[in-house]
Amino acid sequence: MLPTLGQAVLFMRIFPMTSRALVLLALFAWGFSAQSVSAESCAALRELHGNEIVSVHCGGAPSASFDAQGRLWVAFVQDKHVYVSYSDDKGASYSEPVQVNEVAEDTEFNGENRPKIIVAPQGEVMLSWTTKTSSNFTGLIRFSRSVDGGKTFEVPRTVNDDGLTTGHRFDSLFLSDSGNLYLTWIDKRDMEASLAVGDAYPGAAIYYAVSKDFGKTFSPNYPVSQNSCECCRIAMAPQGDDKVAILWRQIYDSQIRDHAVAVLGPEGEVSGLDRATVDDWYIDACPHHGPSMVQAQDANQYHMAWFSAGELHKGIYYARYDLGQADSNQLIEVDATPGAGHPSLAQHGDELLLAWKGFNGVATQLHVMSSMDDGKSWSPVQTVFNTEQASDHPLLISDGKAIYLSWSTAQFGYVFKELSHDD
Question: Which residues contact 303 (CB under 8 A, 6 or more apart)?
């Protein structure tokens, strides 16, 4: 049995301080080599089954989620359709993919903009995604669900309610403990209104809608913030049983693209709206670099990881944010090397895990480090995968027992791999 990151941290506690780095390096070299990956590349599958095969290993921009019974669900895009597969053996094998949208849609599938999937405790399989409506960055926020265990899906619906052919993109989906389903996205309806009266409008805006019946119906669209960045994913994390905190890239002083945070309520209440990062990244363009966020041990604090090329900070950074006040003492430079980007955070128990992509001049590298004390200190950085072929952004998820890597690559196919667990 291969060692996990949790076991590596346990060894770090046991061995003397001078030996810890060497022990951790040895464990990772043994347990997380690329050769230990059991996934199949799409090229190999097509050679065996033909080019028409539909598979999680061939689909674009997969997203993964566990249900209450521990079944792994994965959504992906292939040939303008959203598909869903599940696995009962933690990604060793997958069910036959089920097509969600019968009518083909120009569905977004890239690192920052991909289908999202959540399974309710009662079993409803719920998905959101963005469908492009033109080549000019316009789109619709789409939603579908299954009420028969993923066998069939309802006809997709459009959730943005303005009826405009404008930008509605970069959706994110979150289910609160109380059963409120939050769907948030980047929206350009207010830009259209401003331009119609001759007013300048930098960027876009953040909007959201809420379903209290697991996707059967949705509330009207609620505004969150004006002048957001146009093209970065939105991070979401719980705030109490009913609400959700979100983190996104915001435009400040018309040219600076740092991050903002807010708490959203089920009736359209927006509170705690504040600036979350101060990097002073002056850029009149889309970074395509969204943040990651998970709740800390204190319910009002959040672990954040993000990328910036600002005047003050360049590279990937971590910080712990207290609602209403950023904790500058927790700001940590994670990776300032060229090519570093797209961090993802996940937490289970006492373990907080951070993964991101790097580049050594030849190969893309997947790096990992962990904290066992709520982000106060971190393990040495380890490289767990290398590939010279194309790869997606890494995503981390938890099933309540362990933390897993969800990562799509041309070389290995879709990789779903345990990185840690409680011992």
Answer: 293, 294, 295, 296, 318, 319, 320, 321, 345, 347, 352, 375
d(CA 145, CA 215): 7
> Could you give the C-alpha distances from 64 to 57, 75, 113, 126, 394, in angstroms and in order?
13, 7, 14, 12, 11
Q: Which pTM does this prediction carry? A: 0.90
Q: Which two tokens stand for residue 367?
A: 């790096």
Q: Alpha-carbon distance 6 to 29, whole Å? A: 15
* Number of other CB atoms surrounding residue 118 within 10 Å: 22
Tokens 């492009």 correspond to 132
Q: State the DSSP H helix or E strand holding residue 39, giving kind and residue range, or none if neither.
A: none
**Sign (positive or negative) of CA dihedral 252, 258, 263, 268:** positive
| Structure confidence by residue, pLDDT tens digits, 72-95 | 999 999 999 999 999 999 999 999
- Which residues, in sequence order, are bridge partners of residue 107? 131
Judge whether 119 and 73 are in contact, CB under 8 Å.
Answer: yes
Distances (CA, A) of 309 to 47, 312, 313, 343, 413: 42, 8, 6, 14, 31
Are 279 and 312 spatial neighbours (Cβ–Cβ below 8 Å)? yes
Half-sphere exposure of 144 (CA within 13 A, CB side): 24
Q: What is the DSSP string of 275-288?
A: E------B-SS---
Q: Which two tokens stand for residue 298?
A: 């204190």
Tens of pLDDT, residue by residue over 21-31, are 333 333 333 33
Q: What is the DSSP string of 151-186?
A: SS-PPPEE---S--SS-EEEEEEEE-TTS-EEEEEE
- C-beta atoms surrounding 204 within 10 Å: 27
Instruction: Return the SS3 of 133.
Output: coil
The residues near 130 (Cβ < 8 Å, ≥ 6 apart) are: 107, 108, 113, 139, 140, 141, 142, 168, 169, 170, 171, 185
Per-residue DSSP letters for 287-339? -----EEEE-SSTTEEEEEEEEE-SS-EEEEEEEEETTEE-GGG-EEEE-STT
Radius of gyration of the chain (CA): 21
